[in-house]
Amino acid sequence: MLVTFAALLALSFSPMICIDPGHPSEVGRGTQGRRITEIGAAWQVGVALKAKLMQRGYRVVLTKKSIGELVRNKERALIANRNHASLAVRLHCDAASGSGFTVYFPTKQGRAEGARGPSAEVLSRSAQAAKSFHTAMAQALKGQLRDNGLKSDTKTHVGSKQGALTGSIFSKVPVLLVEMAVLTNRKDEAFIASTKGKAVMVEALAKGVDAALNIGQPPQR
Hints:
Blueprint: H1 5-12, E1 16-21, H2 38-55, E2 59-62, H3 73-82, E3 87-94, E4 101-105, E5 110-112, E6 115-117, H4 120-140, E7 147-152, H5 157-162, H6 166-169, E8 175-182, H7 186-193, H8 195-212
Parallel strand pairs: 1-2, 1-3, 3-8, 4-7
Antiparallel strand pairs: 4-8, 5-6
Helix pairs in contact: 2-8, 4-8, 7-8
């Protein structure tokens, strides 16, 4: 297939999205459900989301090359930085007494590994992106999963200790984290483990990306 110069030029100006399938990292292997692990769910959704976004005209980079690759959270942020991502989307699953999805974003600077961040600019851009992302995602998942809202990443276990998640502290680009479902909830796990549920989640995340970048229609190659 012959690729024209115009097509290559258009592609070079397409937004870059960094997808970060959570775990394994220095904090462990994540949540374990009865039917699926957090590593498995995040990887499967992440790979499918990459394909979906590329079909819509985005450039996409994953923070891992394989499902079991161990990548430290600092390095996950650095991958997004090196690729000059317009948005970094971190995918996780929760372990809690409740159910549903939650979107987290940095609201203040934190400290990790001797560094302090993110910058005021990244905080502002992350907040704007996260609000639009959450609204679109919630609409797409209405009637499918409970919406637990948009929250500061200081509400997470690690974020509460550091002031922000490590992936936020080292980020130089807008960043957010999605807890896609609660794996310790049987209905949530069944949803994210199913082919249909994963497809619905991928589409919701893609719509969130469109909204976060203020793109009414997906960019065309």
